[in-house]
Write a structure and sequence with these properties.
single chain, mainly alpha, 8 helices, globular
């Protein structure tokens, strides 16, 4: 049975090959910006597949219906617009932008994968109890915050406005409804009220 995870993992896994092929076709194999883009987006794809195998999110285990398949393929394909736009622009990012993008990517990978691992182990060992410690103590969605940093780094290196628009639409259509649904589900815990007061929905509440 085809599951949503199979579609997502396939796209993530072949991202590096797609970016490299795009670079070859457009004659951008000597571009430093393209190679750095390949390194971070390609690495993310490999890490995602490893995460899926080791501590995957059960959200993506649902059967992939034809409608959902079309939606996933369309959405995941749109993420590849960034490397295509970069390759076709024949531009190079300034060194400062490269440094910011790589740093943002690293910070995002830490937040995304570490918080997902923490959630995975919490559900294994303390299922039925509200997770509100560690990376989850000041933000109720550190995994989404990590992904935000990761995809912003990709958009920055594209040197184009379109990936920012697409990513913003993903946040509005997919992320925010998911976070709000989770808020409703977590409200069944007695400890959720105080936890909500001292944490942010996405960005950490520091004071």
């Amino acid at each position: 049975m085809l599951r949503e995870r199979h579609v997502i993992d396939t796209f993530k896994g072949v991202t590096a090959l797609f970016v490299l092929a795009t670079m070859a076709v457009t004659g951008r194999l000597t571009s430093l910006t393209c190679w750095i883009y390949l390194a971070i987006h390609g690495t993310y794809g490999v890490l995602w597949m490893l995460k899926s195998r080791i501590f995957g999110d059960k959200t993506w285990e649902k059967r992939c219906t034809p409608g959902r398949f079309v939606m996933l393929v369309g959405g995941l394909s749109a993420y590849w617009a960034a490397p295509v736009l970069l390759a076709l622009s024949y531009r190079e990012a300034p060194p400062a932008l490269l440094a910011v993008a790589v740093s943002l990517f690293g910070f995002g990978v830490f937040l995304h994968f570490a918080s997902d691992m923490q959630k995975h182990m919490w559900l294994e060992l303390k299922k039925g109890h509200l997770l509100q410690t560690g990376l989850w103590s000041r933000t109720r969605n550190p995994n989404y915050l990590g992904e935000l940093c990761i995809y912003l780094s990709f958009a920055m290196l594209s040197l184009h406005w379109l990936p920012f628009v697409f990513f913003g639409s993903v946040i509005a259509v997919e992320w925010i409804p998911n976070m709000l649904r989770k808020e409703k589900s977590l409200s069944r815990y007695a400890a959720f009220g105080p936890y909500r007061m001292r944490s942010g929905l996405l960005f950490p509440k520091l004071f």
